[in-house]
TrEMBL record:
This is Putative AbiEi antitoxin of type IV toxin-antitoxin system. The lineage of its organism: Bacteria, Bacillati, Actinomycetota, Actinomycetes, Propionibacteriales. InterPro entries: AbiEi_N, Restrct_endonuc-II-like. Residues 2-42 form the AbiEi antitoxin N-terminal domain. It comes from the Bacteria. It holds the Pfam family AbiEi_4. It comes from Kribbella amoyensis.
Length: 313
């Protein structure tokens, strides 16, 4: 049974468990003592210790199980994993999506939400279907467009930035999809978010910060600019406003959580070298993203300071 579960995201159905020799009483016993967990009606998985995972990663893990359980409950070939569920299987980050719902596009049945699954009705061209972990899923470009149609501009940009960095992303397929979705209800968000998307944004935080800068009317920054000085390469910076001699770095903090004091010192020295070149450096954290006006004012404050300070040679 574990071999079957391994092909299905760790999930097995009650019928598959019975075929492996488990009685109804044995299934109930394992659920009662915590060895197994019920993912949805008739679909189970062995309990896994997730205490070492970050909360967000735990949510992604549970969502993957829910997707496998939903597909495993249906007749083979009638459901395709789509929207943000497909993005998750492709390994693309999402933002502000309801991970309590698995997203499926079906060739039969009704639309709507039932038992933790949101059913979309439609027929997909084979070119827009891929296979991941044994599941039929919408292609990366298609899933990006589908998700953008239902979410906010910010959420769409977060996923689109990441999707465009992915080696499986097909830009020609995206062009065709933009024509196909011109009259979709979410068409304006699709077009504006994908026009704004930039694969040089390397994290969810950087993508959200790009949206904040746009919303607050800041100039368009250069992403991943490279600097050096007489001592050699300094490295890349997240955002550079060249006309304002200002660098903005998104500091997610998580990247330093398990690092040594030496790495933190090197990061401080790197920032000192940037300042020695006459650049203003602004560090933005996750909490700053929840205060867009205040954060934009901090960046504009750096612009003002740079005009008072001659740029170093």
């Amino acid at each position: 049974m574990r071999r079957v579960a391994a092909r299905q995201g760790g999930v097995v159905s009650s019928r598959q468990a019975a075929d492996a020799g488990y009685s109804v009483e044995q299934i109930r016993e394992r659920l009662a003592d915590g060895r197994w967990v019920r993912i949805r009606y008739g679909q189970y998985a062995e309990r896994v210790d997730l205490s070492g995972m970050a909360p967000w990663d735990r949510q992604i893990f549970h969502h993957r199980q829910l997707v496998h359980a939903a597909v495993n409950s249906m007749k083979r070939g009638t459901a395709i994993v789509s929207h943000h569920s497909a993005l998750i299987l492709h390994g693309v980050p999402i933002w502000r999506a309801d991970l309590r719902e698995a997203q499926l596009t079906r060739t039969t049945g009704r639309c709507g939400v039932k038992a933790g699954v949101r059913h979309h009705r439609g027929t997909l061209d084979p070119q827009h279907i891929a296979e991941i972990d044994g599941l039929a899923v919408t292609s990366l470009a298609r899933a990006t467009v589908e998700t953008a149609a239902l979410g906010s501009f910010e959420a769409a940009v977060v996923s689109a930035d990441a999707a465009m960095r992915h080696p499986r992303f097909d830009h020609e397929e995206l062009r065709r999809l933009l024509e196909l979705t011109e009259h979709w209800a979410g068409g304006p968000t699709i077009r504006s978010a994908l026009a704004f998307a930039d694969p040089l944004a390397e994290s969810v935080g950087e993508s959200r910060l790009r949206v904040l800068m746009r919303t607050e009317g800041l100039p368009v920054p250069t992403l991943q600019a490279v600097f050096e000085d007489d001592a050699g390469p300094i490295g890349r910076v997240d955002f550079l406003f060249p006309d304002e001699d200002t660098v903005v770095e998104f500091d997610g903090m998580m990247k330093y959580a398990d690092q040594s004091r030496g790495i933190l010192i090197r990061e401080k020295l790197r920032e000192d070298r940037l300042r020695a070149r006459g650049l203003q450096v602004v560090r933005i954290t996750w909490s700053d993203l929840d205060h867009p006006v205040r954060t934009a004012m901090r960046i504009r404050g750096a612009f003002t300071r740079s005009r008072r300070t001659p740029l170093a040679g």
